[in-house]
């Protein structure tokens, strides 16, 4: 399973990269705004800065919603750096844009996926990744993980190569459950990734080892 971090915060990206388990980064317009990154030149520069920090894929989202605008913006983003994956929203124009990019071997991440039908359509159009938002489904009392299961089954039935990028991951158990289902990638906050390392018995056991070592080596 690939681990992506879902942030535009360079310090957090660096911390995750230094852990040695990071495979990529996802961003979105809200995450860029949260970091105060505004204006076209600053936004483009920030994507390049992220690419220079990590080795893997970096999803950069288009802000246009019409086909022509998405194509223009997506081409510009793709030219920025070979690690860039163009993030396109799940709309009918978005599907056409994904097909356009797929025909030209430009990689895409179809975002805002909330149903298996949307994921099927994106795979048919040739999306590199689909991003089902599991946390936001949980927020409205729907089973986000069930959507991952449905997409996994459909993609396996037909051998679609589109990767399931479980998005809107909110906590560590989301990561574990996505891994059990067979999501190809997960993207979440640094805290959810760091949470994988934690167990109280590990802390207790380590404290005991240290104390016993110190007793015998005074
Ligand atoms: C996906 O790529 C999105 O950036 C993200 O996972 C959305 O997560 P949120 O629901 O926590 O905003």
From TrEMBL:
Molecular-function GO term, any one: transaldolase activity
Active site: 87 (schiff-base intermediate with substrate)
Hydrolase recorded as keyword: no
GO cellular component: cytoplasm
Catalytic activity: D-sedoheptulose 7-phosphate + D-glyceraldehyde 3-phosphate = D-erythrose 4-phosphate + beta-D-fructose 6-phosphate
Keyword Transferase attached: yes
Gene Ontology process terms (BP): carbohydrate metabolic process; ketone catabolic process; pentose-phosphate shunt
Major localization listed first in the record, in broad terms: cytoplasm
PANTHER family found in the cross-reference section: FRUCTOSE-6-PHOSPHATE ALDOLASE 1-RELATED, TRANSALDOLASE
Family note: Belongs to the transaldolase family. Type 3B subfamily.
Functional summary from the UniProt entry: Transaldolase is important for the balance of metabolites in the pentose-phosphate pathway.
Protein name according to UniProt: Probable transaldolase
Source organism of this protein record: Flavobacterium kingsejongi
Gene symbol of the encoding locus: tal
